[in-house]
């Protein structure tokens, strides 16, 4: 290969590399291009996502408050139940004492 052929071959290779690079640049630009309508839609989606996150946070706070209220009600109901059971136990004990007293009176009399 003489000098002229080498220069021509090098020029062709460089021209092909330039052409491939230019074509790749165009493809990348087309893929990256975002239109104004797409940007508007992206803004709407971002706003909707933000609103949904706020709503979720409010729902979580509400559920935590409601759970706390229900736990308080359960604790109060359990305390009332314990008091009622204790009263019932006392009433049964008193009833047994009265029965025993009545039986003693009948057996003495």
Describe this protein's structure.
It contains two helices and no strands. With 109 residues, the chain is an all-alpha fold. It is 94% helix and 0% strand.
Structure at a glance:
94% of the residues lie in helices and 0% in strands. With 109 residues, it is mostly helical. The radius of gyration is 45 Å and the shape is rod-shaped.
Helix count from the secondary structure assignment: 2
* Helix proportion: over 70%
| Spans where pLDDT lies below 50 across 5 or more residues | none
**Overall tally of domains:** 2
Give me the strand/helix succession: HH
Give the distance, in angstroms, between the N- and C-terminal Cα atoms.
145 Å
Tally of DSSP β-strands: 0
Strand percentage: under 5%
Largest sheet: none
- The coarse silhouette is rod-shaped
Question: Given the helix and strand composition, which structural class is it?
Answer: mainly alpha
Q: What is the radius of gyration computed over CA atoms, rounded to a whole number of angstroms? A: 45 Å
Mean pLDDT: 92
Main features:
109 residues; mainly alpha; 2 domains; 2 helices
How is the topology of this model organized?
Elements: H1 3-32, H2 36-108
